[in-house]
Each structure stands twice: as C-alpha cells, then as structure tokens.
C-alpha cells in the first residue's frame, strides 16, 4: 500500500508543474500563488479540525511557520509560476529536483551533524553538472527570458532547501498537518497585498481551464499531496518517503509531454539523469551514515 501511495504522490506532484503551466499562463504569479495557498490552507484547516488539532496561539510557535510560509511557499511557488511562463513544465520539474543538492550544501554550513563526505561531494558535483547541461543551450543564446525562467526555478529549489533546514531545526515535534496548514495560511497572508498591489486580481477574466487547473493544483497538488506526504512519513519513515524526489521530475516530464505536447530535448534527459544520479549518491551516503549511527548507539 505504501508503495502505491508513494507513486501516487510522485504522479500528483509531477502533474503540479503541468497545472501551473496551464493556470499561470492566464493568472499572474502573485494572484495565482495567493489563491493556491488560500484554498489549500482552508482545505487543510478542515483536515486539522477533523483530527481534533488546532493551530498554535503563541508568537514563538508561529515564527517558524511564518518562515516556512516564505521559504516553502511564497518564494518557490512564485518563482516556479513565473519561470514556467518561459520554459516547459517538464524542464521546471527537472530543475526543481536539484533541491536536495542545495540542502546538503547548506546543511554542511549551517549544521554540525550533516557534514560533507567524499560521496556526498561527488553527488553534488554530478548533480550540478546536470544543472549546467540544462543551462548550456540558453547560455549559448544569451541571457534571454528562457534563461531567467530556468534561473527562477533554481531559486525555488534553493528556497525549498532552506525550508527543509528550517523545518528540521524548528518544527521537530510539531504536528505535520499543523505545520502544513500554518505555513500555507501564512503564505496566503504574505501574497494577498502583493496580488492586490501588482496584479489587479478583480479585473482578471481567466478561462475555465485556467481556473480549473488552479483549483486542482490547490486541492490535489497542495492540500491532498501534503496529507499523502505526511502519511508516508508517519507510516514508512522519512528515508523511504524521500524516494518521491526521484519520481517527481520523471512524472513531470511525462505529464508535460503527454498532455501539453512538450518536446523532450536530449539535453533535458541527460540533465535529468545526472541530477537523479547526484541526488542518489547524496541520499545513499546519508542513509549509510544513519545506519552506522544507529549501529553505534547503545540499546535502551
């Protein structure tokens, strides 16, 4: 059952890039992210109530949720939505897969228990070679909008990496549903003034396809996907759940090719293979360290 849910989660998160491509073409990024986070937050608030949980009430408890709202919502959601105006959804999915590479580099600098090893460093190098491969064609053309679209996705991947470290440091012991609801709610509050100030949202007249893509993304790709993700973490552990990292870029490329008729470039496949290989080396090294630490710990 857990493997079915893992594959389902990978397919849903991979499809999210397709829905962003469709909806973001007609709805400006700030408004798109505002509606996405607002709908998802309300949906998760219902789940929260059904579970008999409540949002925190102290300022200290809200600070990390606000930070997560910025680094796991406002920045990456906006960057990806804007970036996909200029690049394919499949390429966006591939570039976002570089997130674990940034995570391991930042963890080496900001934490004491996750140091770079030779295997991790090799994985980082291989992965970023894949990223460079993806940028080569746009660099040859000059710094046109396609280049900046790809760069925006890299910014999103870096932001996701920062959010991962914030969650590890400050959200230990916090209910996963509380964390997801709080961060999405705070992201919606951040995005509201930006949407009103820059997008004139009440004058927008998007098509049913754009609206439907946004609603599906909010309910399925954000709220429901969070529930699946945290179910996997609780029932199978973080290590196995992390396997979804390999599925998202693959399913993202397949969804874009099948439903949006996006072409699959040879350099994109090469970049995808190198990024996945790099992430695999990083995760393999991290898993080995966890096993060794567990063996060295005395039994209780």
How are the SSEs ordered, and which strands pair?
Blueprint: H1 2-24, H2 29-50, H3 59-83, H4 89-96, H5 99-110, H6 118-141, H7 145-170, H8 176-199, H9 208-236, H10 238-241, H11 244-259, H12 266-296
Helix pairs in contact: 1-4, 1-9, 1-11, 2-3, 2-8, 2-9, 3-7, 3-8, 4-7, 4-11, 5-6, 5-7, 6-12, 11-12
Q: Top keywords for this entry?
A:
single chain; 300 residues; mainly alpha; 12 helices; 81% helix; globular
Tally of separate helices: 12
| Whole-angstrom Rg | 19 Å
Low-confidence stretches: 290-300
Protein structure class: mainly alpha
Strand content: under 5%
- Share in helix: over 70%
The structural domain count equals 1
Helix and strand run: HHHHHHHHHHHH
Distance between the termini: 31 Å
User: Per the principal axes of the C-alpha atoms, what is the gross shape?
Assistant: globular
Number of strands: 0
- Major sheet attributes: none
Overall mean pLDDT stands at 90
